[in-house]
Structures are given as structure tokens and as C-alpha cells.
Specification:
By secondary structure, the protein is of the alpha+beta class. The protein is 22% helix and 24% strand. The structure holds zinc ion.
Length: 336
């Protein structure tokens, strides 16, 4: 008889042959670890593929955490890939003549490192100053708002566009009733090789939240085994990870505190990723915390008012990407 298995995500009963791939609790793009935590024979190959092609790719390329992989040496600069202009990780230049303008990161083959390049945007000159306010194309206000804000949109030098975006910017401006004529001398000297201090802002979108929720659920499944996580009270988190369907309460929240009680909110923390699972303060809901690069802490509600067996699920691990080891957080050590 063919052995059938239920996938802990899509809940389909499939023959064992559809469970060939290993699902990594923490995506491999965030580091390789000795005795790595993997789920074998519980996540079907089609869910595994979907996660790899969608959620994990997005988490690695489109987020601030993804960018941190290069800062921390988890990935070599030459492997840098981004979504380019569609990158939700927006950098704002903090200083220099283009302060406030937007940029994104690309890998420069010539320079062999990750550099910044201007993003599509329009700058409007603030009347009576030599300063511009910058807007990404999709956020350009309409002509009345621009006048109200006091921009000098009628003077030829009042509108600034990086030269490589003249055409698309012109179109975006025209749609809002603003005429734009490129000036020859008005070229963008926001060069990729300039070392300006940048403020990086990222969008934490649903796909990021789903990728984080998957890490949390994987971690619970790794320790509590599939029988426990197949409970129907986990259907909400399953649906969120697979389809992005949300209930009327937040499944993933951001906590501006490190997981370990002895670490500062701002300042140097241990260089590792961290994942925990525990009962929530209400004693009946199941929560997990995920922190990549021990930076933003995401609190994931895995099951609200869980009706299944109440057992000890408090656990936490840190994934040290420098030594490639995974260490358990002790129950005595204060972690939230
Ligand atoms: Zn599946």
C-alpha cells in the first residue's frame, strides 16, 4: 500500500513520493547551519516550491533583512540581486545636493560591490530656496496640491528629474496636469560611486509577513511534529501563509524590542537570527517570535485560543550565522 501523508500547509493527502524536498525552517538564503532544522516528509513538494519561488525570494530580495545579508557577510556582494525600481526597500539620500532623493541598490559589475542608483522620481523646488522635495512617481501630488505646498512648478528649473527617467516622469507629470520640459544642463549627478549616507526605509508588506509566519509555523512543526500542527486551529495561519487570507485580527505584529531581555533596543546585539515559540500571555493562544539579524522582532499569532492539547511548547533558538551553529535559548535566561 502507498503511504499517504498530509501536508501541514495545504492539508492535501498525498503519496509519500510528493514529499521529496526538505523544507528549511529558516530559508537557506539567510545562512547555512550545522544540524540545520529541516522538515522532512511533512511539507509537500508543491508547497515547498511555492514558498521558494515566492515568499522566500521576496523576503531575501525585497526587504531590509534581505539587504542585511550583505552587511553581515551571509551573502557575498556579487550575489546581490534586487527588484530594481520595484524594490520595496527604498533608500533616501541623507546628505549632499540630492538630500531627500530616492535611490535603490544594485550590484555594480565594474565596482564589484553593491552601489546605489537613483530611483524614478521627481523633485519640486521649494520657492525661495535651492532645496527640492522628492516624490516617487506614484506619489506625485496633483497640480493644485503642489501649488499649495509652495513649489515653484512654473519656473523651468523648478522640476528636477534624473535624466534616465525623463520619459516616464514626463508621462506621470502630464497625467497630473503638469508640463515638464527637460533642461539640458539639468542632469543627475547622483552617481552610483558616491558614498552618501543613506537612510533606508523598507515596506513590510503582506508577502514579508507571510514569509515570517512560515518561519514561525515551520519552527513549531519542527519541535511539536505534524500531528500537533495539523490541528484545525492552525488553519488560519496556514491560509495566511499560502494565500494571504487574513482574519479580523493581526497575525503578525512588529515589536520594537529585542527577544533577549538583556539586549538593548538600540545598539549592538548578538549577530544571529532568532525564533521562539510559546504560549501567549492569555495562556491559550500560541505565539512565535521571529527576528532576522536580531533586528526587527515579529510576533506571530500561530493559533488563537488553541483548543488542542496543552503541552510545553516554550522553546527558542538562535541561529548564529558566523559560526553556522544553532543554539538553544535556555528557559532560565530571560527571553520574551
Ligand atoms: Zn502542501
Amino acid at each position: 500500500m502507498v503511504k499517504r501523508i498530509t501536508c501541514i500547509y495545504c492539508l492535501k493527502d498525498e503519496a509519500q513520493a510528493s514529499f521529496k524536498k526538505r523544507e528549511h525552517v529558516l530559508p537557506q538564503s539567510f545562512g547555512l547551519f550545522e544540524n540545520n532544522f529541516t522538515l522532512n516528509g511533512v511539507v509537500c513538494d508543491s508547497c515547498n516550491k511555492f514558498f521558494g519561488d515566492n515568499l522566500e525570494l521576496h523576503l531575501a530580495r525585497g526587504t531590509l533583512e534581505g539587504g542585511k545579508r550583505f552587511e553581515h557577510g551571509v551573502k557575498a556582494s556579487k550575489e546581490f540581486k534586487s527588484f530594481g525600481k520595484r524594490d520595496p526597500t527604498i533608500i533616501q539620500v541623507n546628505e549632499g545636493p540630492f538630500a531627500g532623493s530616492y535611490a535603490y541598490k544594485i550590484y555594480s559589475k565594474e565596482q564589484r560591490r553593491v552601489v546605489i542608483t537613483p530611483a524614478p522620481q521627481v523633485g519640486f523646488l521649494i520657492k525661495g530656496t535651492d532645496k527640492f522635495d522628492y516624490y516617487r512617481l506614484e506619489n506625485i501630488p496633483n497640480i493644485d496640491e503642489l501649488r499649495q505646498k509652495g513649489y515653484d512648478i512654473d519656473s523651468p528649473k523648478g522640476i528636477f528629474v534624473p535624466s534616465k527617467y525623463y520619459e516616464i516622469a514626463k508621462k506621470a507629470l502630464n497625467e497630473r496636469g503638469i508640463s515638464f520640459k527637460a533642461l539640458e544642463e539639468q542632469d543627475c549627478s547622483l552617481q552610483a560611486d558616491q558614498h552618501w549616507e543613506c537612510k533606508v526605509t523598507g515596506t513590510i508588506d503582506d508577502k514579508v509577513m507571510r514569509a515570517i509566519a512560515k518561519i514561525a509555523f515551520n519552527y513549531l512543526a519542527f519541535w511539536q511534529k505534524s500531528e500537533f500542527v495539523l490541528h484545525e486551529d492552525f488553519n488560519i495561519i496556514r491560509e495566511f501563509v499560502l494565500n494571504g487570507k487574513k482574519p479580523g485580527y493581526p497575525l503578525v505584529r512588529i515589536m520594537n524590542k529585542p527577544i533577549l531581555g538583556d539586549e538593548p533596543v538600540i545598539g549592538k546585539r548578538r549577530s544571529c537570527h532568532m525564533v521562539t515559540s510559546n504560549w501567549a500571555a492569555d495562556g491559550v493562544s500560541i505565539v512565535s517570535q521571529v527576528s532576522l539579524f536580531n533586528w526587527i522582532t515579529y510576533v506571530v499569532c500561530l493559533a488563537r485560543e488553541f483548543s488542542g492539547a496543552h503541552k510545553d511548547i516554550k522553546r527558542g533558538h538562535f541561529f548564529d550565522f558566523n559560526s553556522h551553529s544553532i543554539l538553544e535559548l535556555s528557559k532560565e535566561k530571560p527571553y520574551r
